[in-house]
Amino acid sequence: xxxxxxxxNKLTESTYKNVVENFNxxxxxxxxxxxxxxxxxxAMSLAGKAYFDAVAKxxxxxxxxxxxxxxxxxxxxxxxxxxxxxxxxxxxxxxxxRDIIAELEKKTDLDVKYMTATxxxxxxxxxxxxxxxxxxxxxxxxxxxxxxxxHSSKYEVKENEAVQVITTRQTDxxxxxxxxxxxxxxxxxxxxxxxxxxxCTFTTHLSTFHDKAREMLQEKLVTWQDKCSDATKVPDTxxxxxxxxxxxxSMTPDASPLMERLARTQSNSxxxxxxxAPTLKAQISPLANMFNxxxxxxxxxxxxxxxxxxxxxxxxxxxxRSTSMSSDVNSMARKxxxxxxxxxxxxxxDTLLSFDDGDLITLLIQEEKxxxxxxxxxxxxxxxxxxxxxxxxxxxxxxTNSTGWSDC
Length: 408
What we know:
It is a single chain. 64% of the residues lie in helices and 7% in strands. By secondary structure, the protein is an alpha+beta fold. Strand 2 and strand 3 form a beta hairpin. The longest helix is centred in the N-terminal third of the chain and has 78 residues. The protein starts with a helix and ends in a 14-residue tail after the last strand. The C terminus is likely disordered.
């Protein structure tokens, strides 16, 4: 490198300008990119968490399978291991923000002011020293022009003094330039050292993270791979079950669950009372107003009155009277029935009865309770409370007797 003071001065000024005009703006850009990097890692972490949560869900489904239970456990273990890796990565990038991004943000703005002021101070001092040296050199030239005349010895002492002043000022200028250049170069290097040191620290954190991640994943990787090495392998318990199905066994089939329930219902019908009626008043059927006659509180009474009228009208014939009496006895032996005219859904209330329109229900309790009746749906045998306005009395059609009259 050149040792010329002017060249060294130019190096000093270019060093300060490089820090102020290039290095510090580059640091600002680095801060913005670092924040984008953090956001990307956060987004990746969230996406990874969602992905491996889905893997765990699939593992939970597989864990209830008799043949894939072990693979389901493996999927859940993989998800948990990846979750721990994500946690370690998040902690690592917290250190990245603390050690690099936060430090750069704190130092960059202050450094711009400091380096700008230092550079201006150097330039100002350099100008003062240069001006002083230039004046001394100008004075020496004047003395030398005057000493060329008749009285040259008269200026000899002054000329020697001027030369001495110039030499001192030149020496001082060179020392100032050398010290200034050294300081500028060291200022530049300190900043690059700071940046390198911070990233070395972060690299150490990353290395530690990767070591932990490798340890967590490698620990069970071989076991996981063994579980899926043979897709045709079936647990012994499952094979025993399958082989057992291939061997014919003579056995009597169990009774239908529906038939068992109906049998229990019939056997307990006289001993077990109905559940309490709903506390709320029954709702009115939308079709209730379509019928001119009002639904009686005791549907069975309508059947009885009808049959009594029929019996009076048939009193002239002994055969008819006999038939009517027989019908009356059979009707009294049977419990009254109603025909549904509107569908009803019980929902989650197991004390209510669900049915479709056109179904037949045998009344087990003939008196209404706040608009509710209690009965048994004939097609299923289910029992429960239902709104009385959703049905009407049902009278079975009878054969016409010999006189041409009908019982209903």
